[in-house]
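Schema walkthrough. Field components (list of strings):
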Amino acid sequence: MSEIQLKDNADQTILDVPAIKIQTDHHGAPHGYKRWLFSTNHKDIGTLYLWFSLTMFFIGGAMAMVIRAELFQPGLQLIEPNFFNQMTTSHGLIMVFGAVMPAFVGLANWMLPLMIGAPDMALPRMNNWSFWILPFAFSLLLLSLFTEGGGPNFGWTFYPPLSTQFSPDSTAMFVFSIHLMGISSIMGAINVIVTILNMRAPGMTLMKMPMFVWTWLITAFLLIAVMPVLAGAVTMILTDKYFGTSFFDAAGGGDPVLFQHIFWFFGHPEVYIMILPSFGIISAIVPAFARKQLFGYHSMVYATVSIAILSFTVWAHHMFTVGLPLAAELFFMYCTMLISVPTGVKIFNWIATLWRGSITFEVPMLFSLAFIVLFTIGGFSGLMLAITPADFQYHDTYFVVAHFHYVLVTGAVFSIMAAAYYWLPKWTGYMFNESLGKWHFWCSLISVNILFFPMHFLGLAGMPRRIPDYALQFADINKIVSIGGFLFGLSQIIFVAVVIMAVRGGKKAPSKPWEGAEGLEWTVPSPAPYHTFDTPPEVK
Amino acid sequence: MRLFKPKKIINTFMLGIVSTPLFAQQSNINMTEGVTGISNTVYSLHMTILYICIAIAFIVFGVMFWSLYSHRKSKGAVSASFHESTTVEIIWTAIPIVILIGMAIPSTQALILMEDTTKADITIQITGSQWKWHYRYFDHDLEYYSRSTTSQAEINNEIEKQAHYLNEVDNPLVLPINKKVRFLITADDVIHSWWVPAFAVKKDANPGFINEAWTKIDTPGTYRGQCAELCGKDHGFMPIVVTALEPAAFDDWLAQAQVTAKQQLQAEQQSLTKTMDMPTMMKIGEEVYNRTCAACHQVAGQGIPGAFPALQNSPIALGDIDKHINVVLQGASGTAMASFAKQLTKKELAAVITYERNAWGNNTGDIIQPSQIDAALNSINQ
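Field assembly_structure (string):
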C-alpha cells in the first residue's frame, strides 16, 4: 500500500506536509444555496450525494415498512395488492439506484481525491451535473406513485409483457427516471476513472493505491459497460409500450426472454457495482483497527479484477427457470460457482489481516466485522443458489430475498455505515458519539438478523416473493420477520442522530483520529479544508 | 370486532399438519423432500451443500473469532508485520476450487436428469393467465381451468381462514403416480411460473413460447404450490393443486371427466335454444362476474382508475351490444383485457354481459341470449 511515512503523533504529521500551509490562505466555501447548487467542489458534492442517499434510504425504508406491515399477518389488512406491488418495485429501485449507488459515489467524491492526493475530481462541472440530475430522476419516480393508475408495479426487474402491455400509464415516467439515473451514473464513473488515472500524486503508482481507489476504479469501468445496456432495455420497453415495436412481444416476432437476458447482462455486474466499493472500504478499515497492514494487497487487486470480469459471464443464473438449454444452464452454473473463489480469497485475506493484529472495536470496525460475517453468509446462500437443480426450488422465493438482503443490507449498507463512521471525523471535524454509535451498531446487528435470517426458512418452506398475502403455514415466521423489520427501521434513526450530532459539534477530531489508519486522507486536518492538495504530496 | 385470530389459525393449521399426509413431510423451515425421485435428489443436493457451507463457516468464522478474541489490543496484543504469502494465496484459491468441483459433479448429474423430458407416458399442457391455470390433457380431449377458491371474505379477514387458505382450487390437476408426466408450459398474457415444491418442478410460463418439464410422482396425495413469477395484481392468488392418483384410479377419473365434459357440451348446445329471463341471467351473471371480472373491474364495476376501466356508466357497457360482446369474447389487444371466449360457457358469457349492462345503475334493459353469443362466435371464427 501507500508507503507514505506517517508519524505517530497525528498533529505533527500535518505540519510535515507543505501543501497544508497553502490551504489556509485559500478562499473558503461560498455561502448560501449557491454553495450547493453551483458547487464544483468534490467535498461539497460528496456531502450532497451522501445526504441524498440517506434521504432515499429512509424513503425506500418507509416503503419496506409498509410491505412488512402488510405481511405482518395473513390476509389483506392495510393496502391493496396493486399498491403492494408498487411498494416492492419502488423500494427496490430506490434502494439500488437512490440509496446504495449514490452513497458509494458520495464516498468516492469525498475520499478519492484525498486518497490519491488530488486537489479535486478531474471533471468538477460534470460532477455537479451528475449529482443534480438525481433529485429530478427520483422526483419523477416518486411522483409517478401519485398518478392515476399508480407508479411502477412490475418489480424492479420490470419484466415484459407485465411492464409493457400490462403496465400503468406512468411507465414512461419510470423509463425516463431510469434514463436520468443512468446518465448520472455514467458521468460519475467517467469522472472517477479520469481522476484516478490522471490525478494521482507523484509516486503513487497503481499498485500503491488504497484498495478503495482500486475497487472504485474497477466499479467505474463496470458502470460504463452496463449502464448503457440498462438504458437500451428501458428504451425498448418504452417503444414496445408506446410506439408499437415488439422487441419483447411474441405476437410481433419478439421474445420476452430476450429482455431478461439484456436486463441481467446489466443486472449482474450491477450487483458487483454495489459490492466492490464495499470491499474497498472493508480493506481500509480492517487494517486500521487491527493495526496491521492489509494481507495480500496484490491478490486483493487481482481478485477484484477477476470478480469484475466473471460478473459478465453469470447473468443467466437469475433465469434458470426461464427455459434455458441444458448447456447454458451448466455454463452459467459453473461460472457462478467460480465467482466464489475470488470472493473467498478476499474474505480469507481480511481474516489473515486480523490474525495476530492488535485489534480494537471502534464503531467502524464493528460494522466491518459484521460485514465480513454476514456478507459471507450471503455468499453461502449465493453458492447454494448457483446450484441449478436446487435453484429450481429456491428461485423467486424468500430464500432469494434473504440472500440478496444479506449481500446488500448487511453487505453494502453495513459497509457504507462503517465508512461513514470511519470518515465522519474527517468530514465534520468532530468525533461522533461513540456510545450512541455502538447502540446503533448492536440494535442494527440484532434486528437485521431477526429481519432477514428467518426469510431463508420462509423461502425453503415454499413462500414465493412479491406476494401481498400468504398461506397460513408462513404466518409465524412472517410475524417475526416484520418485527425485525420495524426494529431495524427504528435503529437507523440512531444513525441520523449520531450524524447530526457530529455535524453540530463534539470533541474536536485530530487529523488522524484512528491510531492505525493509513493513507493520505489522514494527513490533512479534520475537518478537511475546502481545498486540499493544491500542491500534490510526495508518495514514496 | 376482531378481524383476525392468530391463535385459532395456528391451531387450525397444527390440526392440518396432523391430519393431512401432505404436510407430514412438509417442513416449515426447510425445503420439502418431495414425492419424486428428482425432488429427493434436489433435497439431498440442497442439504449436502448446506452442510458444506456450515462446515466452511465454522472454520472461517472460528479462525476469525479466535483472532478477534486473542489478538485484542486490550489483552496487550502487538501486531505482527507479515502481509503477504503467495503460498497461502494459492492454497486458499485451490481448496475452494476442489470443493466446488465436488459440488458441481452431482449437480450436473441431477440437472441432466431433470432436463430429460423424453419418453413421457402422458403430456399435459399448462397455460397460465391472469390469474388462473389451464390444463389440457394431450390425446385425451380434456381441458379445464383451475382457479383459486379462497373467498374474498377470507382474504379481507371477514371470516375465519380455512386450513388451505390461498392454496385451494376448484379443479385440481389430476395426475397418475409412477408415470412420467411431461408438462408443456406456456402463458396467455404475462410471464407466470408453474411451481409445485413437492415435485421440484418450477418452470416459467412465457407467452408465445413453450417450456418443457417433467415429473414422476411416487405417492398418491394432494400437492400444493403457486405461481412463482410476479404476474400482476393477483400474483399471490394463483394457487396450484395437484391430485396424484393410482394409475387405475386415474383412468377412472379421466373417463368420468371426459363424460362430464361431454354432458356439459350438450347442456351448452341445449341452452342455445332457450330464451332466458332477466332475473335468471342477472343471478348467473353476478356469480360469473364476481368470480371472473371483479378482480380487475371491481365488484361494484368502478374499476381501478388508470389501471382497469370502470364498467359502471362506461361507453362499452351502455353502448353497442355487438361491440360489448366482441370485447368480452376476444379481449382488447394491447391491454390487460383477456379473451373470455374459451374461459366461459356461452350461457355464462351471455349472463355476464347481461349483468354488466344492467347492474350498478347501467339499466339498459338488454338481455343477451346464449344464441347471440353463439352467433358472434361463429362470425369471429369465419
